[in-house]
Design a protein that fits this description.
The protein has three helices and nine strands. It is flat and about 90 Å long. The protein starts with a helix and ends with a helix. The model has no long low-confidence stretch (mean pLDDT 78).
């Protein structure tokens, strides 16, 4: 006990309070960003999509249950029988509507087979749309999951960080080559 009383604690309490203050600021920023992301997804989650099967075609239904309109709604179909060298999947888009107002339902019938030889099976895969905020979304018809399409990456998105990491790696490599030649 005598050792702790004789020690000069100096700025340890100041450092401790600074670390706690910084942690609380970081936590507040995280909560604000999480709530913003949740608010962005709220309208997109209210777009209800499903497909029905008949002998001649698939019918995809889209209902807008949100309070704002959605734009550029398209059904993305997987062409199962077609293969392109270097690509695993080939997709075709069918337009549902340019705008779907709140509470409105639209349907689109996609053929089961494309072409006369019935060699390309057409399976509805997802629904693409743009919400009123300008964000692009994809709703998977098989799983019902909603995915955001990053048309313009945000400042701290995973894509942006990977892109800049690659840029910095290439710059370091070019500097190393230039130093070896000099």
């Amino acid at each position: 006990m005598q050792i702790a009383q004789d020690m000069d604690w100096g700025t340890v309490p100041a450092w401790f309070s600074a670390i706690l203050s910084g942690g609380s600021v970081i936590l507040a920023l995280y909560i604000i960003l999480r709530d913003r992301k949740k608010a962005e997804r709220s309208d997109a989650l209210k777009l209800i999509c499903w497909d029905a099967f008949s002998n001649e075609a698939y019918t995809t239904h889209v209902i807008n249950a949100s309070d704002r309109a959605v734009h550029g709604v398209q059904v993305v179909c997987w062409l199962k029988g077609q293969s392109v060298p270097g690509e695993e999947y080939v997709f075709e888009r069918f337009g549902v509507a340019s705008d779907i107002r709140p509470g409105e339902e639209k349907t689109v019938a996609t053929p089961r087979w494309l072409g006369d030889d019935r060699g390309q099976k057409c399976i509805p895969w997802a629904v693409e749309f743009q919400d009123s905020d300008g964000l692009h979304w994809v709703r998977d018809l098989q799983t019902g999951r909603l995915h955001e399409q990053n048309q313009s990456p945000r400042l701290f998105s995973r894509y942006t960080l990977m892109h800049w990491r690659e840029v910095w790696r290439k710059r370091r490599m070019i500097r190393a080559i230039a130093q070896r030649r000099a």
